[in-house]
Write a structure and sequence with these properties.
heterodimer; A: MetI-like fold; 15 helices; B: 2 strands; globular
């Protein structure tokens, strides 16, 4: 606490003032979005729109969830939220599952080509989907994965960061534990299940937060692999609701959908803040 | 580092690695190799036949004024996003490190934009700045006399996507700066204070140098973010326009490949981007040892 170093009350006041200004600036787009989601379309397009919430909250959200916008794409957002949820959960759990067993193999076994496999996983860090768009799409199309949940999730579940994180964590598990397990006659799978997995709980929670957000917020990939409105995720659904021209779009519904799209990942960040911060810091190590 | 105690099995490690390796080969290596292959091929107008084209796709690329403009735009965009984001977050983190009361509340209120999808961030900012109905557009016209129309003005479009991209990234930078600040030993700051250094002097001669590894790390991460993760922001707002003013490299790969169906050209661009990612990853990993200490 620098406050202990010397007493400068005006600096503390300034610090609070700057932080409050920062918080307001960061929250302003959210506030405007929320207000717009409680107004009628007429109120929004009548410039300037009111800056206090209106009385259409229930109306807008229930219309968005059950029917969607009638202009642009008109799929119900409830369905899109379900798709986003399936995608986020499958990616988060899929990544954790395949990474944790891969790291276990790399750390606890000696076998031919071990380093080769490790580097193979490492290199995927350098190949984000954005740089190999069309060929990846072609592979998914050839495997008949378009417009399926498998197509939405499987290509995104290989993760070098998760593998690294688990590898690093496993290196800190005392060797005595593995030794004791071996003396007791426990095989590797038993050791994995009874010792490694329970010890990894915190790392799993931290990774889950980061990967859930990653999965929920995917944009380019679902844009490519989904063509049917019933397979849209919320994030691409919003974009599809916006028609060209400010006046034609049903902004009240778009803004309600934007709030709905932000809620699950924001809730995960805020409710699991401790793991979120940990996950963020550790996945970058 | 190696484990002293290991298990023995002829098949188990391969079985455990199989799912990860299978996904990696099918969805990473195969498409990446295909992208490189197409980059050296030329396709006829009907897409029926392809032939080896040597480096002609690349030669064409670097003679294409649109592509060169896109490189320039990406450089401007990523440097703006990184520098503005880093400066704003450093100020906020320094202040948050100073206050005792409400520190957790400030932190919670500043980190949530991390959870917002880039495309949704784009929609929010495009709505506030919409030429005809945007609330900020209205305020600027009324109080500042500025006519804001990013659908027509390239510079304004760039400013809009920079604001949306920076807004989303502030939370990330903030958390890393705050962790960096909190790891600085208090005794160092107290020693400087006893020597008579004021708060500003202490910041520049003690705190800032100790934060430089964090700052450099964030610079690389922010450039990577601006290069690749901002696709959603661009697509939800300007779609590269007006007149290509916000067409960053990643957006151009998508546009040329998916919308314009130019397989060879788009793949050559993919190959160039791969080289850029490899360079950025190498920089990041060479530096990883000297990074932030926790």
């Amino acid at each position: 606490m620098p406050g202990m170093v010397e007493n400068r009350p005006w600096l503390t006041v300034l610090a609070h003032a700057i932080l409050i200004a920062g918080v307001c600036l960061v929250a302003f787009p959210l506030y405007i979005t929320f207000v717009a989601s409680t107004l009628t379309l007429e109120q929004i397009v009548q410039v300037p729109m009111p800056l206090v919430p209106g009385d259409q909250l229930f109306e807008n959200y229930s219309r968005a969830l059950t029917a969607g916008s009638e202009r642009g794409a008109h799929a119900p957002v409830g369905r899109m939220m379900f798709n986003s949820f399936v995608m986020a959960m499958s990616i988060a759990f899929g990544k954790i599952a395949i990474s944790i067993i891969a790291s276990f193999a790399i750390v606890y076994f000696r076998f031919p080509l071990r380093n080769f496999f490790f580097w193979m996983i490492f290199v995927t860090l350098m190949l984000p989907v954005e740089v190999r768009i069309i060929p990846t799409y072609k592979v998914a199309a050839d495997l008949h994965m378009l417009d399926t949940y498998v197509g939405l999730t499987l290509p995104l579940i290989a993760s070098a960061t998760a593998t690294f994180l688990f590898r690093q964590f496993f290196m800190t598990i005392p060797d005595e534990l593995a030794e004791a397990a071996r003396m007791d006659g426990a095989g590797p799978l038993r050791f994995f299940w009874d010792v490694v997995l329970p010890l990894s709980k915190t790392s799993i929670a931290a990774l889950f937060v980061i990967q859930f957000i990653y999965g929920w917020n995917q944009y380019l990939w679902p844009l490519l692999v989904t063509t049917q409105e019933s397979m849209y995720t919320t994030v691409i659904g919003i974009k599809r609701m916006i028609t060209s021209g400010d006046q034609l779009t049903e902004w009240n519904l778009v803004m309600a959908t934007a709030i709905l799209a932000m809620l699950p990942p924001a809730a995960v960040v805020i409710l699991m803040q401790r793991w979120f911060v940990r996950g963020l810091v550790e996945t970058e190590k | 580092m190696e484990k002293r105690v290991v298990f023995r099995s002829a098949w188990l490690p391969f079985a455990l690695l199989a799912p990860q390796i299978a996904v990696t080969v099918i969805f990473f290596f195969w498409p990446a190799a295909a992208a490189l292959w197409y980059a050296f091929q030329i396709q006829d107008a009907f897409g029926l036949a392809t032939e080896f084209a040597g480096i002609s796709n690349f030669a064409e690329l670097f003679h294409d004024s649109n592509y060169l403009a896109s490189i320039r735009i990406t450089a401007v965009f990523s440097l703006l996003v990184a520098s503005v984001g880093i400066v704003v977050s450093l100020i906020l983190a320094t202040m948050a490190d100073r206050v005792v009361r409400g520190a957790l509340a400030y932190k919670t209120l500043l980190i949530w934009p991390y959870a917002v999808a880039p495309a949704v961030a784009g929609v929010l900012w495009a709505f506030m700045f919409a030429p005809s109905i945007g609330i900020v557009t209205y305020a600027m016209r009324k109080y500042l006399g500025i006519h804001w129309n990013w659908l027509l003005e390239g510079d304004q479009a760039m400013l809009l996507v920079v604001m949306a991209a920076t807004w989303k990234q502030i939370s990330y930078n903030f958390l890393f700066f705050l962790a960096g600040l909190q790891s600085i030993p208090r005794s160092l700051i107290e020693a400087a204070a006893i020597d008579g250094a004021g708060p500003a002097r202490r910041f520049w001669s003690v705190v800032f140098p100790l934060l430089s590894p964090t700052t450099f790390f964030l610079l690389v991460v922010n450039v990577v973010y601006a290069f690749f993760d901002t696709f959603g922001i661009i697509d939800a707002t300007t779609q590269g326009g007006p007149g290509g003013a916000t067409q960053i490299l990643v957006y151009k790969v998508y546009y040329d490949g998916v919308k314009a169906a130019d397989l060879g050209g788009s793949s050559a661009q993919s190959a160039v981007l791969m080289v850029i990612v490899i360079a950025l990853t190498v920089i990041q990993f060479r530096f990883v040892e000297r990074k932030v200490q926790y």
